[in-house]
Write a structure and sequence with these properties.
The protein is mainly alpha-helical and 232 residues long. The chain contains seven helices and three strands. Helix 2 runs parallel beside helix 4 (97-114), helix 4 packs across helix 6 (150-187) and helix 6 runs antiparallel to helix 7 (192-231).
Length: 232
């Protein structure tokens, strides 16, 4: 029988899901932080993250992409809305292997957009959909449970599925941007240390997206299982 408050009761499966999510999140975050910290102590060879990212952007036909500063730690991102890279202070002016790796990763996203990378187009198209569905699916789900309307719970599952799809689509987008970054660092002749460090930093960063995708898939499977239990 379905617990009416969706996991707020003593459901062992739900508790296990929460614990798995927390552990995955903490482990991946700790790994990226430690890896970034390690390579932030290793000089890149004289150039800052901003300088290398600028060269990479220009080499990929992204001359119009700007580079701006953003506050916070590892808050770096590329915003296609205003066509700017936003680099945290350490990565903007820092001259470490880690700062170059992160800056080039974000430049890789700009290159994806410039070259019409298909999966990035799909991800961009999903953004407004996910922004809507992730705010409403739980409400629809609870209404379906309280009103005992299986159609509403099915709709809620479909709405949540967009979040899962978004996480799965994000994986190749992030991995591809990292590959572009490592390839540019290697081709530009920055040295084996920079290449090795960039691979380690960006692999650690990719694991956070893997964990998010895995967690969302597990949550979807849990919801589907509970919905089927209610129907039976």
């Amino acid at each position: 029988m379905f617990y009416p408050y969706y996991g707020f009761g003593y459901d062992p499966a739900y508790i296990a899901l929460v614990l798995i999510s927390l552990v995955l999140g903490m482990l991946t975050q700790a790994y990226i932080n430690s890896t970034y910290k390690k390579w932030s102590r290793v000089p890149s060879g004289g150039e800052s993250g901003e300088q290398v990212a600028r060269r990479m952007l220009d080499a990929n036909g992204c001359e119009r992409v700007g580079i701006r500063s953003v506050s916070g730690h590892l808050t770096d991102h590329y915003d296609p809305r205003d066509n700017n890279l936003y680099l945290s202070h350490d990565n903007l002016g820092g001259g470490s292997v880690a700062s170059v790796a992160v800056a080039c990763h974000e430049a890789g996203h700009a290159a994806q957009r410039e070259q019409g990378y298909f999966m990035m187009k799909v991800r961009h198209a999903l953004v407004p959909v996910v922004n809507f569905t992730q705010n409403i699916w739980m409400l629809v789900f609870l209404l379906g449970v309280f009103m005992n309307v299986s159609g509403l719970t099915s709709i809620a599952v479909a709405l949540f599925s967009f979040t899962v799809i978004f996480h799965l689509v994000t994986l190749p987008v992030e991995i591809n941007a990292s590959r572009r970054a490592v390839a540019y660092i290697e081709q530009s002749g920055m040295g084996a240390v920079n290449v090795r460090g960039a691979r380690q930093v960006l692999t650690a960063a990719a694991l956070t997206y893997v964990a998010a995708a895995l967690t969302s898939v597990l949550q979807l499977l849990y919801i589907l299982g509970r919905t089927r239990s209610e129907d039976e």
